[in-house]
Design a protein that fits this description.
alpha/beta, 6-stranded mixed β-sheet, 4-stranded parallel β-sheet, 10 helices, 10 strands, about 40% helix, globular
């Protein structure tokens, strides 16, 4: 009998790299853009990697028991990954969700048996966000104080949990190096919690210090590119503890419309449906590919999730 799996835990990682041949031809690009399709993870995003890594690190340290409730504060994908893997491992999950995210995210978490609580319904969080001009980390600290009073709660805390970048150092980086036979010149990734770019970037830099690591970010006032955040121009207290600036060679600021345009063109040229942050990463990779000095080079770009999670948003709506 062929290979049989017994848990989605075994299916996390080893996502494919796809060269965007039709897209490159359409735009006349002379560099190679290889997209790492993270929606092939069992719960549909790159965050499955860190959800598994952080849960297993907690298990190994003895912080979890059969009655544990895994709790996270998130814009969606990490919550989905935690809810799915909690279900597979027999834990409960509770996700404090940012308001305004696509309805698909909330429905998916609930489908996995997770409890969804919108941050706007928690007085301590709304008061803190209002007092600090929407400082996510201040609200996160306030939530932790609240959770410390509850039994059996494990606050996953992706922004400072070292198993977050550690998961990418152990899996994403080695996969890219293996699948390109070490022939990767440029790596492009969003900077949300800092885990993907920090862990993957560190691994690739250790293999070849000349790999150019590019972080993408939205404008400070831009809130529509879910999952990535500004990494400059903000107070240090508003930056994730997992973000390792030492591995980042370049930062590109992407606008929402450019993210939409790239994602829509990709769907029509490659039959690949990606989300908004993936569109932002693709636009960045495209701009980098257009630089004369990058002719013939290999650019690896992370596509964090699928466009199916954004069908209720303007990304693919008929009116857009």
């Amino acid at each position: 009998m062929g290979k049989i799996y017994h848990s989605i835990v075994e299916l996390v990682g080893n996502t494919p790299l796809l060269e965007l041949d039709n897209y490159e031809k359409k735009l006349g690009l002379e560099a190679h853009i290889l997209a790492k399709l993270e929606y092939y993870n069992p719960a549909g995003s790159v965050k499955d990697r860190i959800a598994l890594g952080m849960i297993e690190a907690a298990e190994e340290s003895g912080k979890l028991n059969e009655n544990s409730i895994l709790v996270e504060m998130t814009t969606g994908n990490t919550g989905i990954g935690i809810a799915a893997l909690a279900a597979a491992k027999g834990y409960k999950s509770r996700i404090y969700m940012t308001d305004g995210v696509s309805v698909e995210r909330t429905q998916t978490i609930e489908a996995y048996g997770g409890d969804v609580i919108f941050q706007s319904t928690v007085p301590e969080l709304t008061e803190t966000l209002k007092a600090t001009n929407n400082d996510f980390f201040a609200a996160q600290d306030e939530l932790k104080k609240k959770l410390d009073k509850e039994p059996n709660v494990f606050f996953v805390n992706q922004t400072s949990n070292k198993a977050n970048p550690g998961s990418h150092y152990k899996t994403t980086g080695p996969e890219i190096w293996r699948d390109t036979d070490g022939k990767v010149d440029i790596f492009v990734s969003g900077a949300g919690t800092g885990g993907t770019i920090s862990g993957t970037g560190r691994y690739l830099k250790e293999k070849n210090k000349n790999v150019h690591i590019v972080a993408i970010q939205p404008k400070i006032e831009e809130t529509g590119i879910t999952g990535i955040h500004p990494i400059e121009g903000l107070p240090k207290t508003q930056l994730p503890g997992n973000l390792d600036y030492s591995v980042i060679d370049e930062r590109l600021t992407i606008e929402l419309q450019d993210s939409y345009d790239a994602a829509r063109l990709l769907a029509k040229t490659e039959g690949v449906l990606i989300g908004i942050s993936s569109g932002a990463a693709l636009h960045a990779a495209t701009e980098i590919a257009r630089r004369p000095e990058n002719k013939g080079k290999t650019i690896v770009v992370i596509f964090p999730d699928t466009g199916l999670r954004y069908l209720s948003t303007p990304l693919f709506s008929r009116e857009s």
